[in-house]
Design a protein that fits this description.
Mean pLDDT: 73
Largest sheet: 5 strands, mixed
Strand order of the largest sheet: 2-1-5-3-4
Structural class: alpha+beta
Radius of gyration: 23 Å
């Protein structure tokens, strides 16, 4: 009897599972692991495949059956963490953004970070002015297609590329102008390095936004950067606390607390699981960027009572140790196989992106663009909610309504390859119509956009008539629907542009 049990247990441990990891260039790495394989084993396999030595900045991300994001813990079993049926699908991503990406030792590391920030720009995580956006896009263009060649690049060639969720014809021309006149002669490595240097100067560099609400019920996005903790509301950073000023991170249920020397910030996550993920990310980021040595890492409890709440310990080296280790790397630079102009599922380079030039330059334009950027960002993203895919041409509200008839034919994909701040704030599962209603209400209240358009002062605030016209479109979507999402959208119509003042 005992021998049979031992034999069955041995066979169970020897069972192999297929894993697919989506890389930053959207290629895939497939391998098999045994049941008891730790996260570190899978990560080391992946880094060996990539020929990556400066690997501490990266991690493996997955989404559990409840649509909650996680970073794979390297000290625990992969199979037990995923809690889903094989084959397993995960994503290789930058977990800790380098404080100075230009100081990375190897070009292969800089290239992978470049791919991550390129994704951040495309999916709306890296906010910037139009002038900055044009320069960043021009660097990408130079890195991918090289010097401008009138024989190969006809008029309007930059419109064939998509660098942002939305872009105007004016922005396309600016990108092409910079590419033609300012970047000639730059190698891909040089353009990527200049891209990183520019991205590093932006306030939202390294931001992976966690959707929450403040104590007044206003939408906010919390994030951890190499320099500290930030809170975003609308397109503005309303709080920034340096890591050495953060004294404690705590959570209870859906409530997240950040303790600073003089204040306590309180925010509410959509679910207890999302709040725990937020807390763990905060613990890891603070340890990585703040501590001098990994030996200083301590187990942290979410509660003041030792025997109550969650306990978590960051496992890995800290930023200072990583930099010291990188300085000792002595090898021939590995060959880099750049993705070039291969179309991507989640961050396409050579694809027709929707322009904004068809929208009149009126005060209403700013509000309408903001709404539709969020709508398409959500529909194109399959990060935390099973939403059906949609064409990039389905840009404006009439198309959204008419496109529902054939929505049942589209395939739902759940992955981490396309994430926008508008995504994971939504409860799951949820109907497609409810997604649109909730997103519209949030966008009118000022959710982050990918590019902060430089508009004339008269375009900053829509008139009452324009708000009413936009409200009419939202009411049309609400008809025939009930429930909290529809009620939230209708309440939004009463005061659609209200915002808490930045403080």
């Amino acid at each position: 009897m005992l021998s049979r049990l031992m034999s069955g247990s041995s066979r169970n441990l020897d069972r192999e599972y297929s894993c697919t990891v989506r890389l930053l260039d959207d290629s895939e790495y497939t391998c098999t692991i045994q049941r008891d394989a730790k996260g570190q084993y899978l990560f080391d396999l992946l880094c060996h495949h990539l020929n990556l030595l400066e690997k501490d900045y990266f991690g493996i991300r997955f989404v559990d059956p409840d649509k909650q994001r996680h970073w794979l813990e390297f000290t625990k079993s992969v199979v037990k963490q995923l809690r889903s049926q094989p084959p397993f699908t995960m994503c290789f991503r930058v977990k800790f953004y380098p404080a100075d990406p230009a100081a990375l030792r190897e070009e292969i590391t800089r290239y992978l970070v470049f791919l991550q920030i390129k994704r951040d720009l495309y999916h709306g995580r890296l906010l910037c002015k139009t002038s900055d956006a044009a320069l960043l896009a021009a660097y990408i263009l130079q890195a991918e297609i090289g010097d401008y060649d009138p024989g190969k690049h006809p008029e309007g060639y930059s419109s064939k590329f998509q660098f942002f969720p939305k872009h105007s014809e004016k922005l396309e021309k600016k990108i092409a102008e910079i590419h033609k006149t300012e970047l000639s002669g730059q190698t891909p490595a040089t353009s990527e390095l200049n891209f990183l240097r520019k991205a590093q100067t932006l306030e939202t560099y390294g931001v992976d936004p966690h959707p929450c609400k403040d104590v007044s019920g206003n939408a906010a996005f919390l994030a951890f950067t190499p320099f500290g903790f930030v809170v975003l509301q609308g397109n503005k950073r309303v709080h920034f606390i340096k890591w050495n000023e953060v004294t404690k991170l705590k959570f209870e249920g859906k409530t997240f607390y950040l303790y600073e020397k003089k204040i306590v910030l309180t925010y509410f996550a959509p679910t207890p699981e999302a709040c725990k993920h937020l807390w763990k990310c905060g613990i890891e980021n603070q340890a990585f960027y703040k501590l001098e040595k990994s030996s200083q890492v301590r187990t942290v409890s979410s509660s003041n009572l030792f025997f109550k709440g969650s306990r978590f310990r960051y496992s890995g080296r800290v930023a200072k140790e990583v930099m010291e280790s990188s300085a000792k790397i002595k090898r021939e630079p590995p060959e880099i196989h750049r993705a070039g102009m291969v179309p991507s599922r989640s961050c396409p380079s050579i694809t027709h992106g929707p322009r904004l030039s068809s929208v009149p330059r009126t005060r209403r334009r700013a509000v309408h663009i903001s709404i539709m950027e969020g709508l398409e960002s959500l529909r194109d993203s399959a990060h935390s909610t099973p939403v059906r895919s949609t064409s990039h041409s389905d840009t404006f509200l009439p198309h959204v309504r008419s496109g529902r008839a054939d929505s049942s034919e589209r395939v739902a994909v759940i992955a981490d390859e396309a994430y926008s701040p508008a995504d994971s704030v939504l409860p799951t599962p949820v109907a497609e119509h409810s997604l649109e209603l909730m997103l519209l209400s949030r966008q009118i209240n000022g959710a982050p956009c990918s590019i902060e358009e430089e508009k004339e002062s008269e375009a900053s605030t829509p008139t009452t008539a324009e708000v009413e016209a936009l409200g009419g479109e939202l009411k049309a979507l609400c008809q025939g629907h009930s429930g909290p999402e529809a009620e939230q959208a209708m309440v939004c119509l009463q005061n659609p542009l209200s915002r808490e003042p930045a403080h």
